[in-house]
Design goal:
The protein is mainly beta. It has 2 helices and 32 strands.
Amino acid sequence: MNPLHQELKQVYHSDQIEAKKKTVNQDPWRLTYHVMPPIGWLNDPNGVCHFNGRYHLYYQYSPHDAVGGMKYWGHKSSTDLVHFEDHGIKLYPDEPYDLHGVYSGSAYIKDDMIHYFYTGNVKHLGDHDYVSSGREQNTIHAISTDGGFTIEKQACVIGADEYPKEFSNHIRDPKLFKLNSHYYMILGARDREDKGQVIVYRSSDLFNWTYQGVFAGPSPDLGYMWECPDYFTLDGHDVLLMSPQGVEAKGHEFQNVYQSGYMIGHLDPENITFTPEKDFKELDRGFDFYAPQTFEDESGRRIMWAWMGLPPDDDNIQNPTIERGWQHAMTMPRELKIIDEKLYQLPLEEYKVLRQDEKEMNLTISGHQEVKELNGEVYELQIDVHRCGDELSIHLRQDTTISFSKKSGKLSLNHGKSGYGRDERIIELDELKQVRVFSDMSSLEVFINGGEYVFSTRVYPEPGQDQISFSGEGCIHVSKWVLASTNERVS
Ligand code: FRU
C-alpha cells in the first residue's frame, strides 16, 4: 500500500469523519430509500454491474466537501437492488496517473473477475486553461478478483499523450462493450474545435488497446463535450446514451445546465461507428438528472442509475443540505425498454417490497379536493386517469404541482419555495393516462404514462408538509403506499 493511500484511508476513518456522519444521519431531509453519500458530495454512478448475485454501485465521491472536490470511488452493494450496504471508499486518488481525481468509469465482467476502467485526472501547475493544456485524463485499468470488494489498480492503459491530436485534454469516462471477438471501449471527448464526440478503442485481451476512430459525432446542435457515453443494444435497437454539455435550450427541451439523453441508431460492425437514426432525446425532464450509466443484470434486464443532481453551474438552483454536510443522491435504479422506438424507464418491480399501508380509491374530481388520508412524505402514489377534463392537477408536498392541460397539450411540474430555485419544467403531452410518483424526504421521481416521460427532482419541504390534493376535472383511480425505509445508516 503506498503512503498516500494509507494517509487518505486514515483520514476517512478518523473520528472527525465519524462525527460528520452522525450529523448527516440526523438530517430530516436525508433520503430513506435512495442511495446517498455517507457524508459530503456524490455525483456519477460508476462501475455498475451484477456479479454472482450481487449488484455493485460505485460512485463519484468527495467525502470531505459537500460542494465537491477531490473525487474518490465510493462503493455500495445489494442483493436485491433495494437494500444497500455501504462499503466505504474503493479507489483513492493515490497514483501519479490519477492524483487529482479518480474520475468516472465502468465495470466489465470477464473470466470470473471484474475489470474496471476509469479516468485518472491530473492537473499540472502553471498557466493553463485545462482544456487545451495542463490536464491529463489517463485511462486506468483495475481488477477485482474477490467479486467487487477489493480493487487493485493495474496500469494506465491509455496515457493522456496517446490520444489523437485533434482532441483537447478532455477525453474521459470509459465504457466497454463486446462485439464478435473484440472488446471496445468508448470515451467521451471534446475536440480542438469544441465539438463533442465519442471515440473508440479496441482490444482482444482488455490489457492492450488500439485507437479505432470516432464512434459517434460531432453533431452541430449537440454541444462542445459529450460526457459519460454508454452503448448497448436493447429490444432490437442500437442505443447510445450520453451527457452532452453546451446544448442550447429549445422550446421546453434542454432546460437544464447540461443534458443527458439517448439516440437510437445503427452500429456499423465493420467500422465500429454509430449513426443516429433518430434525434437526441432527453432521458429525464426534471431538474436533477445527469451522467446515467447502465448495465445488464444476470436476468438480462438493462438497468440504469443516474446522478439525481447536476454540476452547480446554475446559481438559481440550491441544495440546502450542503449546510448539513451532504449533497446529492442517486436516482432509483430503473429498467429501460424500447417501445415504439422510444426509450421508456420503469421503476423496478423489486421496490414493491417497500410498500406498506395501502390506500386505494376512485375519485371524481370537480374543483379543489383534499384527500387527507393520502397525505404523506415518503410514498409511492399511482394515479390512473380514466377521464380527464380540460385541466387536472395533483398537488403534493409543500408546494409542488403536476398539472395537465388537455387544451394546450402540456404537462408541467412546478415547485414553489421548497424547490429552492427549481421552478417549472414542461412536456408536450396529448393524453394523460397515468402518473406514478416516488416521493422521498427530499426527492420526487414522477413517471408519466408508464415511463414514457420521467421527471426527477430534488425538493426540500419543511417537516410535516405532506398534503395531497387534486384540482380540475376528472375521474381517477388512486393507489398509494407508504414506502418503508431501507434504513441504511452509515456507521
Ligand atoms: C460527469 C463528470 C464526468 C467525470 C466526473 C468527475 O458528471 O464530469 O465526465 O468523469 O463527472 O467527477
